[in-house]
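User: Here's a chain of 521 residues. Predict its fold as tokens.
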Amino acid sequence: MVKEPEFESEELAEQTAETYELTPNQDGDYLPRTANEITLAATAEEEQKAQALLAGLKDFDLDEADLAVLNGEDYSDEPESTFGLPVLAVIGRPNVGKSTLVNRILGRREAVVQDQPGVTRDRVSYLANWAGRQFTLVDTGGWEVDVKGIDRSVAEQAEAAIDAADAVLFVVDATVGATSTDERVVQLLRQSGKPVILAANKVDSDQLEAEAAYLWSLGLGEPHPISALHGRGAGDLLDEAMRVLPETSSVAPELPRDGIHRVALLGRPNVGKSSLLNAIAGDQRVVVNELAGTTRDPVDELVYLDGKPWWFVDTAGIRRRMYKSVGADYYASIRTQSALEKAEVAMVLLDASEELSDQDMRILQQTIEAGRALVIVNNKWDLVDEDRQSQLKREQERGLVQLQWAPRINVTARTGWHTNRIQRVLEAALEGWSTRISTGRLNGFLGELVAAHPHPVRGGKQPRILFATQVGTKPPRIVLFTTGFLDPAYRRFIERRLREEFGFVGTPIQLSVRVREKRRR
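Assistant: Prediction complete.
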């Protein structure tokens, strides 16, 4: 007969029960096991079950792709960074071809370009390479004198780019010649004391090179005749830029050694993305205006939250479906999609003072399809009264019922209210995005789940889950090997229970099914 353990008091018995599991040995004596020993034993048991299920898969037809999945291949990658290199800023008045020249230097259509002035508004940084040297190329909006409103903000960003550069590439339209605005830019550049390379753009033929010679009058040295559109003279211009650029930047601080997470700010036009970035950074990093669609190029900014660095990417507002967009809006939509794919977390901003729209839902769906961690931000909370709060709660319970896993935060970007809570929700979403469940634990959980809630019988057959494995993270990707197709409702049930058991806060789960038939003997 097994002897019961004895304790001096009930309190001691309760404390012991929390720390140890008492199991009888062959002699009937109770031997304690620590919590760590219990966990190791449970893990070993789960792994044994998983190995048994895996062995059972040998009786089914598996292809090379299945074997690769079972070997646990992970497809996650790390974003690249452009910070800490020598900085070359491209400056000039509107419509002289600055963004076209930026695209020519980069060798790809990165900056949004359209045949009208004022397309570029923010200062946008790109990683560039010439003759084996890497540097940061900064595109800016057109600088004008005595302007107001959004044009004044654009000019201020161009001036900030000069201050934050190691050298300046000053672009002038050679077909027009030196204007009074160009002469004012020259004064600005001389005050900065930065090295300047003068580019005489739109010199598309030998006959126009004489036009470039007139730019000696600006007093900036030799004008370099180029055609940004056709690439004429671009190589010589870059050789001169490499000559004046320092080996190490005197303005850009070194990139922190640890990996920096990238956060994309997404949303409809005029929901406050740029305002939120400025509030987080504590500085006017990007142009903000009441005009909807102010931002066109994605703007990367390194921001420190509680001493921890983050890359925040301000993107253009997504107006409508991309195939219906035209001109600058079309290219801005492409850049926004690219920025989302390079990010790890997407902060989707909603205007809390307005009803949830179909456009908001499309942006949220776009984020899920990209497989990025998600944080929902209800902005403009200062415009929400008590009636609107209850109405918003009902709207989001109904419209975002499939996104209950995404953390939400209420902020006012204009005043900075509650922006100090952003880091906490970002870290929670990233933790869920990186969650990995061991094969043994996953199969043990699914085994109990399917036993308690089996798949409904369809057409006289009942699909059975043979084996499950998590093949990757960022986002979590789980593959189920089954004997038949699983209903979408049953997949959603499995996903919901996975979230209840393992968390997966702030991340979509990519659940795929591989139907396999038993091998014929």
